[in-house]
UniProtKB/TrEMBL annotation:
It is found in: Nucleus. InterPro entries: Adenylation_DNA_ligase_IV, BRCT_dom, BRCT_dom_sf, DNA_ligase_ATP-dep, DNA_ligase_ATP-dep_C, DNA_ligase_ATP-dep_cent, DNA_ligase_ATP-dep_CS, DNA_ligase_ATP-dep_N. Residues 338-487 form the ATP-dependent DNA ligase family profile domain. Keywords: ATP-binding, DNA damage, DNA recombination, DNA repair, Ligase, Magnesium, Metal-binding, Nucleotide-binding, Nucleus, Repeat. The lineage of its organism: Eukaryota, Viridiplantae, Streptophyta, Embryophyta, Tracheophyta. It is an enzyme of class 6 (ligase). Residues 660-748 form the BRCT domain. The keyword Nuclease does not apply. This is DNA ligase.
């Protein structure tokens, strides 16, 4: 129980006491002493009726009563400069803005620690005597800081805080604002010391204030609380395993479901009638999803009160598949702004936690799957469920991998994992179907297996072209690197240009990193963007996420790093290379290689294109678990330097376990020029084999049918020399209908001259038949074969995006002809009508329309006449057209 001295309100306790506690805890090494000191503070200086006022300052990252401050280090540094009335050009202002940088002209020993750099600046402007700020006053000012809508308001709050504190107190307030106190004591330890049931209660409510109010007496145990609709719950977590064997061993004897691990935002949907909340794993409510999803949820989640656990993804309607991770916010904003797009938000529910008035987390996963089927009505591409029977599996085409299935042995797990990798999924999750749902549990009821846990992508030798200063213990020194790939040079010459590729920092020990930095330090050149351009050797985007703190002044002074990563690549916007890496890390430093032998960007693109969008070196699952990743070398200097991996397009697909279903493709040999994102090459090969056909890994005279998804690439150009090229949809349609369909013109991507002569009286230049009827899918297919110079949908999208107000596009698509009736006009009326004409002409132009001098080209006729005049529009139109 609290002592008598705690009878006064916590709000009246001086913040200087809490700051002293922070100082003591941060300097103490023993965890038990840290916990006991925290307990003593709570008992001595806090009132049981108001523990929250203090605890929210001790655990600022868990406080959801207060909104976000919108102040990261870069904005906070500028706000502090303004609050202190400093010149932007002063040495102290330079220190704050360049808080990561070290050295004599920068922030010195405290580099990389913003709060220490700030306290160094504040020390010369604040006294050592406390200003008497109380915990209550501090919370009031922090509330005001969070609710401030512009930097000026935030600056005035910071100025008030500076006036009421000393340097030490202000340093801790800055750390509270940044939500990182660096006390060296875990959230779990603080919860346990506060009350034995505090962590459990927080896990099911994510409500720090509720925890403080319900658990006032540490000696009184709290009955375990169940989850509630509208209160975020900490998610069930999956334990990481190294391979399929370890996963199966962990769940041996259990009934196991294995699921695709989708690469999206883990979101809990709480539905309460028409009110829908979208809670992230950090229990933030992502209201931006409401415009794109709430109507779908309200209409298709059949119970009024419900909690779903799942993944928020983006569905691409043009490709009929999920888009790669990273576009959720963009699509949510487009839905909010009412913009049309081929992409839309899609929620995949894999668990259900609450139905009606009852929590169901105590039921088995198998039982919860049945509830999920009953409660959620799937809508393709908008709302899906992930269950072993039905759900997303109902949409799969022949040859495509399952999204979820029951695994009966380790071979099932390995096969499912292999298919997930080939489909470029994030990985797989194995779950015990007999398990209950436990908030924040990672005990092994759920297991996750990702490609990078088993095997990395090929090692890529990239050149360091820039560096980024670190923070914390790496403050003041370069801790990460911007690496680039060479632009392929002419034979027997060195590369002269390097393309920015990715940012990497993990993988080296402190000693190895220090060695690299010390070797490069003499050649660092400060990045002074936008005053000075990057060195001419480097092709960069100058994106804020790419922009390094220093450049390597000349590539011949640099060092090659061998980079490994998740095998999946991502389309790059931040960097100049067309693809970048997910979770890159340094495998080793290549001191043995000269700068000019780094990988060239063309070889990297070839690797990606030949490996279904990955950096995988072509070996099958299980073949590389004990080996080092294969290196991909530059091809700049003759044949010896070409890519040293065997690309997957040259590796024969294993069809030994394929059982034949039909013989529709007997006597047919396929060669796949390229494949769509929705199907892997292997899945199409297996589809062909299942239906009696054969396939070739290279283009030769035995090939009877060349198949392609798009009319692009070197392989496509080569296939055109061979003969006709058929769209992959013909293969899918044949398999679906279980018969060999005639090759109608709509199925051709390219026609050879011989075929054109045979069909020239039946089809037009785009392979559209003059005689056969087309359905909507046929028209879409024909249009996709046409290379258009401009994308009308994209134009419409950007017109709406950048001209959101209707007045700017009011006359879009209109062409107006103005007729001024000049019969019997006085000079005054003629002047007035002339002014009206010029004003209306400008209105049309401002609204996106056109004005024509010829009525025959116009969509609209506007007549300017004096009041009470009559006009015969019929004769007017005829007269103008014929004249």
């Amino acid at each position: 129980m609290a002592s008598s001295s705690s009878s006064s309100s916590t709000e009246h306790t001086k913040f200087s006491i809490l700051a002293s506690l922070f100082n003591w805890i941060s300097k103490t090494k023993t965890s038990s002493r840290k916990r006991s000191k925290f307990r003593k503070f709570i008992d001595t200086f806090c009132s049981p009726s108001d523990y929250f006022s203090a605890v929210r300052l001790i655990l600022p990252n868990l406080d959801r009563e207060r909104g976000t401050y919108g102040l990261k280090e870069s904005v906070l540094s500028v706000s502090l400069i303004e609050a202190l009335g400093m010149s932007r050009d002063s040495p102290d202002a330079f220190k704050l803005i360049n808080w990561r940088k070290g050295g004599a002209n920068a922030t010195g020993a405290n580099a990389g620690n913003f709060s220490l750099v700030a306290s160094e600046v504040l020390q010369r402007r604040q006294g050592t005597t406390s200003g008497g700020l109380t915990i209550g006053e501090l919370n009031g000012l922090l509330d005001k800081l969070a609710s401030s809508e512009n930097r000026g308001e935030k600056t005035s709050v910071l100025a008030a805080l500076i006036n009421k504190t000393n340097t030490q107190e202000m340093m801790w307030i800055i750390m509270i604002i940044l939500k990182d106190l660096k006390l060296g004591i875990s959230e779990k330890s603080i919860f346990h010391e506060f009350h034995p049931d505090a962590e459990d209660l927080f896990n099911v409510t994510c409500d720090l204030k509720l925890v403080c109010e319900k658990l006032r007496d540490r000696n009184q145990r709290h009955k375990r609380q169940d989850i509630e609709v509208g209160k975020a719950v900490r998610p069930q977590l999956a334990m990481r395993v190294s391979d399929a064997h370890a996963a199966w061993k962990k769940l041996h004897g259990k009934e196991v479901v294995v699921e695709c691990k989708f690469d999206g935002d883990r979101i809990q949907i709480h539905k309460n009638g028409a009110n829908v909340h979208y809670f992230s794993r950090n229990f933030l409510d992502h209201s931006e999803y409401a415009h794109g999803m709430s109507d779908i949820i309200v209409q298709n989640v059949l119970d009024e009160r419900c909690i779903l656990d799942g993944e928020m993804l983006v569905w691409d309607t043009s490709l009929n598949r999920f888009a790669e991770f990273g576009s959720n916010q963009e699509i949510a904003n487009a839905a909010r702004d009412g913009l049309d797009s081929d992409r839309q938000l899609c929620y995949v529910a894999f668990d259900i936690l609450y139905v009606g008035d009852t929590s169901v987390i105590h039921q088995t996963l198998k039982e919860r799957h049945e509830l999920l089927r009953k409660v959620v009505k799937p809508v393709k591409g908008r709302l899906e469920i992930l269950v072993p029977n039905g759900g997303l599996n109902a949409h799969r085409l022949p040859g495509e991998p399952y999204s979820s299935l029951i695994a009966y042995n380790m071979d099932d797990v390995e096969k499912f994992f292999k298919e997930a990798i080939e489909n470029r999924d994030e990985g797989i999750v194995l779950k015990d179907l007999g398990s209950k749902w436990e908030p924040s549990d990672r005990s092994g009821k759920w297991l996750k297996l990702k490609p990078e846990y088993v095997r990395a992508g090929s090692d890529l030798d990239a050149l360091i072209i820039g560096g980024y200063y670190g923070s914390g213990r790496r403050g003041g020194e370069v801790a990460q690197f911007l690496v680039g790939l060479a632009e392929r040079p002419a034979p027997n010459t060195y590369p002269r240009r390097f393309i920015s590729f990715c940012r990497v920092g993990n993988g080296l020990s402190d000693e190895e990193l220090d060695t690299v930095v010390s070797k490069l330090k003499p050649y660092f050149r400060k990045n002074e963007y936008p005053k000075k351009s990057p060195p001419s050797f480097y092709q960069v985007t100058n994106n804020s996420k790419e922009r390094p703190d220093v450049w390597i002044e000349n590539p011949d002074k640099s060092i090659i790093l061998s980079i490994t990563s998740d095998i999946r690549t991502i389309s790059s916007v931040v960097f100049s290379a067309p693809y970048s890496l997910r979770f890159p890390r340094i495998d080793r430093v290549r001191y043995d290689k000269p700068w000019h032998e780094c990988l060239d960007v063309q070889s990297f693109i070839e690797l990606v294109h030949s490996s279904n969008g990955t950096t995988q070196n072509g070996k099958g699952y299980g073949d590389v678990q004990t080996s080092k990743p294969t290196h991909v070398k530059s091809s700049w200097k003759g044949e010896k330097k070409r890519v040293s991996v065997v690309p997957s397009h040259l590796i024969q697909t294993d069809i030994s376990d394929i059982k034949g279903e039909t013989l529709i493709f007997s006597n047919v040999m396929f060669y796949f020029v390229n494949v769509p994102p929705t199907n892997s090459l292997e899945s199409l090969h297996k589809m062909v084999a299942e239906n009696g056909g054969t396939f070739s890994m290279n283009l030769n005279n035995s090939v009877t049918h060349c198949i392609a998804a798009e009319s692009k690439g070197i392989k496509y150009q080569a296939a055109k020399l061979h003969g006709d090229i058929i769209h992959y949809s013909w293969v899918l349609d044949c398999c679906l209908q279980k018969k060999l369909l005639p090759l109608q013109p709509k199925y051709f991507v390219f026609l050879s001259d011989g075929s054109k002569k045979k069909l020239q009286e039946e089809i037009d230049e785009f392979s559209d038949s003059y005689y056969l009827d087309l359905d909507l899918s046929d028209i879409n297919q024909l249009l996709s074969n046409i290379n258009t110079s401009e994308d009308a949908k994209a134009i419409d999208y950007f017109k709406k995006k950048y001209c959101p107000e209707k007045k700017w596009s009011l006359f879009h698509g209109c062409c107006v002809y103005f007729h001024i009736s000049r019969e019997s006009l006085t000079p005054d009326w003629e002047s007035l009508l002339g002014l009206a004409f010029r004003r209306l002409k400008l209105e049309i132009f401002m609204g996106g329309g056109k004005v024509s001098n010829n009525i025959a080209h116009a969509t609209h006729l506007v007549v300017l006449i004096v009041p009470a005049s009559d006009v015969d529009f019929g004769s007017l139109v005829k007269r103008n057209i014929f004249s």
